[in-house]
Amino acid sequence: MSVDGVCVISSCNTPVLRFAKLVSAWLFCALAIHVSAIGPVKADTSTVPAQVTEIAPGVFVHTGKHELFTPHNAGDVSNSGFIIGSEAVAVVDTGGSRAAGLALKAAIRARTKLPIKYVINTHMHPDHVFGNAAFVSDNPEFIGHYKLANALAARKEQYLQANKPLLGDAFEGVEVIAPARSIRGVEILDLGNRKLRVEAHATAHTDNDLTVKDEQTATMFMGDLLFSGHIPVVDGSIKGWLALMDRLAAEKLTRVVPGHGPPSMPWPDALVPQKRYLQSLVTQIRDYIERGVPLSKAAREIGVDEKQAWLLFDDFNARNVSAAFAELEWE
Q1: pTM of the model
Q2: What is the pLDDT of residue 14?
Q3: Tell me, what CATH number does 177's domain have?
Q4: In a domain, 286, yes or no
Q5: Which of 201, 223, 240, 267 is the most buried (most CB within 10 A)?
Q6: Which long-range contacts (CB under 8 A, 24 or more apart) does 169-175 make?
């Protein structure tokens, strides 16, 4: 994730698209009749589909870049995906701009014409929710943690003002869309012969994290409860996050999708680097607090032994130390 921070979205003139322009409307419609509801269908020709990987039958993931928001990457810095049932589609996170969301939707429409019934946001950060605007016209049910609406309302103006210059032209069409349905505890969503277990968690990465488990393939979208490659970012409770990781490690999963990093990661081994880093911060911060070392010095020194293990370390480590320091000094 970049906390404020999907593929570069641009139009193209591929041979397939040039051919499509030459095909008469009646022939296109006639061909469309023979397309299976869950088979390949004609993509939205106005947008280049996002590159996605089918990591399990009917489960697709787009992998974002390990970067901060820039006009060049159009906010494509976090993972998003979708799950196809026999009756409907669920989207899990939508990317960091409307353009990113449109690219994800084009990837969906390249594979199915089933209705997009749910858009699920795993938490509040812009790189996971700014793409929501691309799906409004599909009239899905927007779903999130029961604390997500308040979190977005509190940060809406900050998110919009801070990220407009970072995204440049890619900021066009961005909206902050609150969930219409809030999850407290666990709820089951039915896509038709496919059920998703959506669970809201206590404060960890943020105070509004949720996970989405495809029961059919034992695949879980973790959101930013799991980082790989990209340094973890603390915007909630470091102690709560470590405790939640211990509980999630007991889940019987075939694969997981992190919020940042390669999809289809083995479980629970995927947790090891992140847990090491966060636990190291806790241990060092407690030592500095006990010795009366000021935060200004702690932020410069703590965690530096982990620098080579993570991308974007310099952008987020000091912030992590500051957030965790404020939490731990009141133990």
Answers
A1: 0.86
A2: 38
A3: 3.60.15.10
A4: no
A5: 223
A6: 169/71, 170/9, 170/71, 170/74, 170/75, 170/97, 170/99, 170/100, 171/97, 172/98, 172/99, 173/97, 173/98, 173/99, 173/133, 173/134, 174/97, 174/98, 174/130, 174/133, 175/98, 175/132, 175/133, 175/136
Domain assignment present for residue 69? The answer is yes
Classified as helix, coil or strand, 197 is strand
pLDDT in tens, 266-282: 899 999 999 999 999 99
On whether the CB atoms of residues 200 and 145 are closer than 8 A, the answer is yes
DSSP string, 84-131: E-SS-EEEE---SSHHHHHHHHHHHHTT--S-EEEEE-SSS-HHHHGG
pLDDT at 44 over 60: no
Domain count of the chain? Answer: 1
pLDDT of 32 strictly over 90: no
Cβ atoms within 10 Å, residue 22: 7
Q: 299: which 2 tokens?
A: 């932020």
Better-predicted residue by pLDDT, 11 or 73? 73
Percent of the chain whose pLDDT exceeds 90: 85
Instruction: Measure CA of the first residue to CA of the last residue in the chain; give whole Å.
Output: 28
| Interatomic CA distance for residues 125 and 264, integer angstroms | 22
pLDDT value at position 265? 80
CB 328 within 8 A of CB 285: yes
Query: Token pair of 267, please?
Result: 């479980």
CB neighbours (10 Å) of residue 155? 15
- Of 243, 267, 211, give the one whose Cα is nearest residue 92: 211
Residue 110 maps to a domain: yes
Domain of 60? Answer: 15-225+240-251
Residue 281, in any domain of the structure: no
